[in-house]
Specification:
Blueprint lengths: L11 E5 L7 H9 L3 E5 L2 H10 L4 E5 L10 H4 L7 E5 L5 H9 L5 E2 L5 H21 L11 H16 L8 H14 L3 H26 L20 H14 L17 E8 L4 E8 L7 H17 L3 E2 L5 E4 L5 H8 L2 E7 L2 E9 L7 E3 L5 E5 L7 E2 L4 E5 L4 E6 L4 E2 L1 H9 L4 E5 L3 H23 L10
Parallel strand pairs: 1-2, 1-3, 3-4, 4-5
Antiparallel strand pairs: 6-7, 6-8, 6-9, 7-11, 10-11, 12-13, 13-18, 14-17, 15-16
Length: 463
Amino acid sequence: MSNEIKKGSPKTILILKSNPLSLQSAEQFLLSRDWSVLSATRLIDSVQIFFENKVDYFFLCANHPEKKVKQFPQLFKPFPELQFISYIDLANASNMALLQEIAVPYQVLPPVSGPAIERLVLRIEKEAKQATASNKKNTVNPLQNPEERKKIQDSIIQFLEAPDETTPTSETETALASTAKKNGFSNVEILAEHESRVKKQHLSSSTKKEKDYPYLTNIDSSEKQEPLPKSSPDFKNKIENILDSSVKPSSSSLPIEKIEIAQDCICFKVDATTFRGFLVAAMGKNRKIDTELLLAIQNKLVEVLQQEGALLNNNKPMEIHIRSVNFESWALEKAEFLKKSIHDGSEVVLAFFPVRKTNILVKESEEQEMLNIDLNDLATDTPVTFDIYVYLPANNKYILYTPKNGLFLSAQKDRLKVKGITQMHAKKEVEEEIQKYHAENTLNNSISDYQNSLPKAPNKKAE
C-alpha cells in the first residue's frame, strides 16, 4: 500500500493495523472511492505519518499488540478536528473488552469492510453538519504553527519510546524469584518490595513527564467517568417491535401474571457502534422465559444489530440471577428504556441498561489452561461464581485463593494490592461464567444504587 496523499482526495484515513496483511480489501475499496489511504503497523510510524500529512480519520486497532494504543485519543487531543474510529480484527470477549477500553465515540465491528467504514464516515459527517448548523461558532485549530506541531510530535514519540516502568521484565521476575528462594522470603513479599520501588520510579517519571512532555500532562490511565452514551431512538423502536412481534396471546381467562420481583432473567450483551449495554428480559411471577420466545427475540435482535452495523456479542444470551428488586420500578429509574408486553398470560419486559463495558478483559496466563483477570475487575464482598487463583512465579504454581461461591472480601483485595499483585487467575473453561459474573455484578450495582436512593421508612417510636 502506497502511503501517498491523492491529489483532490475528499478524505484521508490513517489505519493503524496489528498485521500488515489485514484490511487489504477494505483499503482497496476506499482507494476505489478516491480516498487517500495511509497505513502503519507500529505506533511510532503512525505518529510520523500523521504529522507528515493532513489526516481526517485515524482508524485504530484496539487489539494492537502495543498497549499504549489505548492512550492515542488522549495523545492527539490538541487536534480536535481529528476523528478517531476504533476496530478489532476478531470478535471475541478479550478483543471486545479492549475495544471498550479505548475512549472513542465511533467503532467498526467485525467483519471490518470498506463499505462499513465509508457508511460510518458518512454518518459522522452528517452529524458534524447538524452540530455545525445548531452551533454557529467556528472551531479554529490553534496548532497550525509548525514549531508547535513539532513540539507535540516530539512529546508523543518520547512518550511512546519511554519504557513502562510499572511492567517488570521477565528478567526482573526471574531475579525476584531467585532472591526469594535464597533469602527464605515468599515471592509475594519480594514482589511487594519491588512494587514499592516501582511506585517511586513512577512518581519520578510522572514529574519528568510534566516537565519534559508538557502536552501529555493530562494523560490518566484511570477511566474517566463521563456520561454513558445513549442508544439511538431507532434502536429503541426496533427493540419495541421485536417484543411486540415475538409474543403470543393467551386464550386463558386467568389473571395476567404481573412483573413484580424478578431475579431470574435473560441478559443480552449489546455492543453497537456508539453505545453498549445489557438488554435484560424478565417475565411476571419470576417465570423463566420459554425457549420459543427467547429464540424469537434472539434471532430478531441479531438481525436488527447486523443491519445497524453492530454486533450481538458472542450471539448468546446469558441466564443471570440478580438481587431481589421490583423489576419495573428499578428499570424505570435506571434503564434507558423499558418495553412491556403480554406473552402467554404473563407480562414480559425488555429493559436496556447502558454500561461502560460488557466484558471483562481476560488473557492467557503462564499456563495455557488458565486465564489472567485484572484484580480491579473482581467485585468485593460478594460471592465469586468460579475458583480464583493467585500465581506464584517462584514456584510456578497456581494457588486457590477464593473457591467458587466463596466471598472475595475487600480486605483481601486491599492486601493483594499492597503486595503488588494486580492480576488473578481462573481456569479457561469458566470464561463464559466470568462474563456472566461481570453482567450480574454490574446490574446488581445498579440495583443497589436504586435501592439506596429510595426514601428511608421512618423509624417507629416506641410507645
